[in-house]
Amino acid sequence: MEKRKIRVLLFKPGIDGHWRGILTVSRALTEAGMEVIFEGFETVDTIVEAALQEDVDVIGCSVHSGAHYEWNRKLNETLVKKGIRRNFLVIIGGAIPHADHEALQGEGADACFSPGTDTRDVVRFIEENVDR
Amino acid sequence: MEESKKIAEEEEKWRLRTESGRERKDRFESDAGIGLKSLYTPNDVQSVEYLRDVGFPGQPPYTRGVYPNMYRGRLWTIRMFSGFGTPEETNKRWKMLHEEGETGFSAAVDSLTFAGVDPDDPIDWLEAEVGKEGVPLYSIRGMETLVEGLPIDDMSVALVVEPVTSAAVTSMYFNVARERGIPMDQLRGTTQNDILTMTIGYVPWHSLGPDELLKLACDLIEYCTPMGEAPKWNPVNFTCYNYREGGIDAVQEIAFGLANAVAHIDELLSRGWKIDDFAFRLAFHLAAQRDFFEEIAKYRAARRLWYRLMTERYEAEDPVSKQFRFHVQTAGSSLSAQQPMVNIMRTAYQGLEAVLGGCQSLHTNSFDEAVCLPSEEAVLLAVRTQQLMREETGVADVIDPLGGSYYVEALTEELEHRIWEYFGRIEDAGGIVEALKSGWLYKEMNKAFDRRRKAVESGEEKVIGVNCFVMEDEEPHPPFRTNPEAARIEIERLEKLRAERDNARVGKLLDGLKTVCETRENVMPVVMELTREGATIGEITNTFRDMWGLWDVPMMG
C-alpha cells in the first residue's frame, strides 16, 4: 500500500505579521513531499479544530512576536484539554532564542526551530518522529 | 580614443598572463547576479560622462550626494530604531541613547499599534503581544509618556507605523508637541507610512485594501506637506529596507521603492497638487546588505535614478524635489542567532557602506537582534559602532570617496540600468498597487524567499555560524526580555483614559470619521481631533475597517 503523505498544518497565532519564516518552511516541506495546509493568521481554537478535521500529523506554529512562551503554552494546553495532544507532533518556530528551547519543550513543544535553521533539519525531524 | 585602445591591448596582455592562475570560483558575481570582472579600468567607464552622470555633490544628478558639503558640514544622524515593554521603559531607553550620543529617535511599536488594535479587544489573547516587539502607543497618553523630558523641539523623531495607523499615531505625536508648545512648523521627524511594509514586508492582520492604504498614506502626505500643516515633517519614508529583508536583491529593492513613490506621486497629482508642492518631502529608507561595493553603488544609482525620474517624467523644478534622501538600516536578515558577536562586525561593515554611500541617517543593528529585541549592552555597542566611524576612521572627511573608482562607477551604471529595467517590469504589471492586488509582488517575494533559502542551504551563500565555521555546543546567548506586566499596565492606562475622556465627544468625532471615510475626504483633520480627545488606536482603525472592509491578501502569489 502506498504510504500516505505527511500532513502538516502551519499557522501564525496572534497578529504579528513576520511571514518569511513560515512561508519558507511551508515551501521546504512541500518540496520534501509533505502536504502543507497553510492557515496564515488563526486563533488557537480554530487551528485545533482544523487540525482534527484535516486529519493532520503535524501542527507548526510560527511566532516572531516574542510571545513564543504564551502561544506554545496555549496551543499545548488546548490540545491536552481536548485529550488529543498525542495525535500530533507540535513544532514551534520563529524568532525564538536558543536559550528558550528547553523550557518550550518542557511546556509541550516536540521541537523548536530558530533563525538560521536548515529547513532539511525540520524535514528530517518530522520524518523521524511522525506517527503515521 | 588612442589611449583606450592601448589600455584594451594592455588589459588583454595582462589577462593572458593571469589566465594560467586558477580562480577560486568559476564565476564571480555580485549579490544581484551582476557578473564581475577581476579588474576594472578606464575602459569600463567609457560611457560615463563625468558632468552628466556623476557631477558634484549637491548638484544634478546628485550621484555624489544630495548636499554640497555632505558630512564635512553635518554628520549623518545616529537614529536607533527602539521600543519595547511600556512607554515608560522606552522613554528610559531613549534617554540613555540620547545621553550616549544618539542624535535622532525612532519608535519601534508593538504588533497591536502596528495593526491598529486595542489590547482589550476580545481577539484571541492579544495581551500576549503587548509591548513584545515595540512600544505600545494606543492613545495620546502613551505618546506623552514616550517623549516625556526628551528634546523633541531640537531632535527629530521617526514614527515607524504604516498607513493603517499612520494618521492615528502621527496625530498623537503632533498633539503632544502642541501640548508642549512646540510650533507645528518647527516639528521635525518622519512617519514611515509605507504601503508595502505592511503588505509585502510583513503580512498584515485584518488589513485594508491597497487602494485604501494608498489613500491613507497620501492623506498624511497631503496634510503635512502641500496643505502645510507640518512643513518640516517627512510624511512618508518609502521603506525599501523592509522589502529587501524578504530576500529580494538590490535591484528589486530600489525598483520597488521607485514604483511605490510613483504610485503616491500620481495619486497626489490627481488630487490637484503640483509635483513641487510635495516631492521635496518624499524620503526613502534603504538596506545595507552583505555585498559591500554593490550596496554603495546602489545608493549612488538610486540618487541618479530619482533625479532622472523627477526631471524627465515629472518635470520637477525645485532642486530639492530631485534629491533622493535616505535613512539606512543595516540588514537584520544578515545576522545570525549563532555566534551573535559576529553580528557586531557584520553591522560595522554594513554601516560603512551606508556612510560611503552618503546616507542621511543610520540605524546600526544590535548583535542580539537575530533572536530578541536589543539589550542595553548590545544597543550601546551599536551606537558606538557609528561613533567609531565618525570619530576615529576619517571616512566622513572626504565626500563620496569611492567616486571615480572604475569598479564603483561601472557598478553604479550597471545597477542603474538594471533597476530601470525592473522598474519597467513593475509598470508592465500595472504599477505597484495593481501588482499588490494581483499577487504579482507576492510572487516576486516568494521567489526571493526560495532563492535565499536554497543559496544558504547549498552553501553557495556563506553565513558564518550557520553554514560555515559552525561551532557545536555553543552556549546560547541570554535573551533580553520585555516587561511581562506590560499588558496589565496598558489595559489599565486605557481604562483610565476611557473613564476620564468625554466619551460622547469621542463618539461624535468617530461618526465624523465615518462620514469622512464615505466622502473620501482627508482623514487627518478629524483624526487630529480624535486623538486629542483620547480616541484609541483601535477605535480609529476599526472605523476604517468597518467603513472600507478587509482585504484578502494574495500572499501565495
Protein architecture, described:
The complex is a heterodimer of chains A (132) and B (557). The longest helix of chain A is centred in the middle third of the chain and has 14 residues, at 68-81. The radius of gyration of chain A is 13 Å and the shape is globular. With 132 residues, chain A is an alpha/beta fold. Chain A is built from 5 helices and 5 strands, in the order βαβαβαβαβα. Chain A has a single domain (8-118), classed as Cobalamin-binding domain (Rossmann fold, 3-Layer(aba) Sandwich), CATH 3.40.50. By secondary structure, chain B is an alpha/beta fold. Chain B has a single domain (50-449), classed as TIM Barrel (Alpha-Beta Barrel). Chain B is built from 22 helices and 9 strands. In chain B, helix 7 packs across helix 21 (524-532) and helix 13 (292-313) runs parallel beside helix 14 (342-356). Classes of the chains: A alpha/beta (132), B alpha/beta (557). The A-B interface holds A 13-20, 23-24, 27-28, 38, 40-41, 43-45, 64-67, 70-71, 74, 95-101, 114-116, 118-120 and B 111-112, 114-115, 117, 123-126, 128-129, 132-133, 198, 202-206, 245-247, 333, 336-338, 370-373, 446, 449-450, 453, 457, 463, 465-467, 474, 476-479, 482, 555-556.
